[in-house]
């Protein structure tokens, strides 16, 4: 009898995969503006959170194909028919022998996933009146701080004017052209009541000639 080749290859594959992905949006506190004097105002806040997620999964070691052995199931010997011819006796003649290998796909595959998107939240206080009052208080506080700064600036300029003027009256000043001379460069002292010590040069008179006339003049000047 001719050889019979058969392959018994029952295959049962079971696979499962569960992927949980979550995008968490963490909202920070409201943006707070501080103006001094204990005044703080919080305005509307927009939170914009972009995200990108991706995943790749594959069976390792990855084999797209495998060699499936085909065994020899020949049964031609071991018994005889009524004519004395050899026939199979139900026992394989070459048990365990591999006739050839059959290339078989494994069914494995790579899984790719890419997610793009963004999440956004808009937060706004519900009481608009409180916001308006806080803005008004902030404007008042800013004006107050500006006025205090202007007053301090005026006090500084008046003190500089007074000290520079007093020193100038006494003849004390920075050397012109030096770096510190610009402190009093724009100060002018007018209508001074005190005269600083100074000197004047007196030209010499020509000598007086001798004679009666000169003697008379000299006697007259002596009287």
Quickly list its features:
223 residues; alpha+beta; two-stranded antiparallel ribbon; elongated; disordered C terminus
Q: What order do the helices and strands come in, and which of them pair?
A:
Layout: E1 32-36, E2 39-42, E3 45-57, E4 65-71, E5 78-80, E6 86-88, E7 98-105, E8 111-123, H1 128-169, H2 212-222
Instruction: Compute the number of helices.
Output: 2
| Residues in β-strands, percent | 25-35%
Query: Which structural class fits the helix and strand makeup?
Result: alpha+beta
End-to-end Cα distance, whole Å, is 184 Å
Would you identify the regions where 5 or more consecutive residues have pLDDT less than 50? 216-223
- Kindly state the mean pLDDT as a whole number? 77
**How many β-strand stretches?**
8
Query: Describe the biggest sheet?
Result: 2 strands, antiparallel
Widest sheet, order of strands:
1-2
Order of helices and strands: EEEEEEEEHH
Shape annotation: elongated
The percent of residues in helical segments reads 10-25%
Radius of gyration: 58 Å
């Amino acid at each position: 009898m001719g050889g019979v080749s058969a392959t018994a290859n029952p295959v049962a594959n079971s696979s499962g995969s569960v992927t949980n992905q979550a995008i968490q949006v963490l909202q920070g506190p409201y943006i707070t503006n501080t103006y001094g004097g204990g005044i703080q105002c919080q305005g509307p806040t927009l939170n914009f959170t972009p995200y990108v997620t991706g995943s790749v999964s594959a069976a390792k070691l990855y084999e797209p194909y495998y060699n499936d052995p085909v065994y020899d199931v020949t049964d031609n010997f071991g018994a005889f028919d009524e004519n004395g011819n050899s026939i199979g006796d139900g026992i394989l003649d070459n048990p365990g022998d591999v006739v050839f290998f059959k290339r078989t796909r494994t069914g494995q595959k790579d899984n790719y996933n890419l997610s793009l998107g963004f999440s956004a939240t808009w937060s706004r206080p519900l009481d608009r009146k409180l916001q308006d009052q806080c803005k008004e208080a902030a404007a008042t506080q800013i004006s107050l701080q500006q006025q205090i700064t202007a007053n301090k600036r005026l006090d500084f300029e008046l003190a500089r004017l007074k000290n520079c003027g007093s020193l100038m009256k006494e003849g004390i000043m920075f050397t012109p052209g030096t770096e510190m001379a610009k402190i009093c460069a724009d100060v002018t002292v007018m209508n001074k009541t005190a005269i600083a010590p100074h000197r004047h040069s007196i030209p010499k008179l020509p000598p007086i000639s001798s004679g009666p006339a000169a003697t008379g003049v000299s006697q007259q000047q002596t009287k």
